[in-house]
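Obj: model holo form, ligand = NDP.
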Amino acid sequence: MARELKVGLLGGGSWGTTVASLVARNAPTTLWARSEDTVAEINCDHTNRRYLPDARLTASLRATTELAEAVGGADVIVFGVPSQVTRATAAAIRPFIRPWVPIISLAKGFELSTGKRMTEVIGEELPGHPLGVLTGPNLAKEIMSGLAAAAVLAMDDDVIVRELQDLFRTGLFRVYTNDDPVGAELGGALKNIFAIATGMGDALGAGVNTRSALLTRSQAEMMRLGVALGARAETLMGLAGMGDLLATCTSPQSRNRTVGLELGSGKTIEQVLASMSQVAEGVKSVGPVWEMACARGIELPIVREVYAVVHEGAPATSAFRGLLSTAAGSEAEPG
Ligand SMILES: NC(=O)C1=CN([C@@H]2O[C@H](COP(=O)(O)OP(=O)(O)OC[C@H]3O[C@@H](n4cnc5c(N)ncnc54)[C@H](OP(=O)(O)O)[C@@H]3O)[C@@H](O)[C@H]2O)C=CC1
Ligand SMILES: O=C(CO)COP(=O)(O)O
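Output (holo structure tokens):
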């Protein structure tokens, strides 16, 4: 079944290119990137050195700068652009896509202006399409270097999700189905904020005990807000939540953790962003997430401290003083 489907994937960065290369092993796949150089390199050399310096891509993967060519004949569309350009990209493909084609989102962020999840944004711009997310502890460069990984493909429709599972999986990329797309999407987006916190702590010399406490309390914050926003707790305990939290908070490859490391070393957020050429979604997500928590009266001490460093110019050292000064009551309570 999967071999008969044509796939159009939007986004020629680290993750869009990685997923396109995996899917191209299973089905004809066309990747859209806005850069002519990236497209020419993928088609001629089967590489995308700017984002995946050492990776060799599946030779059958085709790339184009034309949206119509990527999505016009596609049976499945995959969104791999950063969250803040997802709405514009969805609007731009509207004239070209066929009705009822399933759309899978890879992005792990919230829209800055609305606080919406990416499948909400895509659904508003492209109504009438089955929507899903592919997410989990999936560092692009690791996967392209041939190391095994696992992900969840989450959709409300359990027939479509099983048909699409075969598109994404390979021998080393295990794809589990999941019927809680809201929870899977929230887990992937929320963990980025905690990776910034972990990076700050590591830069300040946190020990293994401290980091373990921070990760565990991060998981508790993810559960508190995630469940209030409609996630199922078991989804947040799985690959899309706990799994991705562990990967992103501990890997030197994580861009969000790197942002935290740099903030912890004393740089301002402006200096950190000026030195980065890749997206770290947690920087934009922390504002909407903090607002959602405040609006619901949900206490998230770690998110509060990351917000203060990113948006209010507070030093990372004061974030840790702030966390330590929060009274430790019952483990079931915030703090
Ligand atoms: N990297 C990873 O390991 C993983 C990332 N993700 C998620 O995937 C999403 C994409 O991240 P990733 O691929 O890593 O990002 P990268 O920073 O590696 O690449 C960003 C891509 O977006 C493109 N882009 C930027 N602005 C625009 C725009 N205005 N219109 C169209 N395209 C644009 C860039 O194009 P150009 O090169 O022309 O600037 C580039 O192709 C994020 O939400 C991320 O959280 C999820 C799992 C793993
Ligand atoms: O989502 C990711 C791993 O699952 C990638 O994390 P970063 O965006 O922090 O690199």
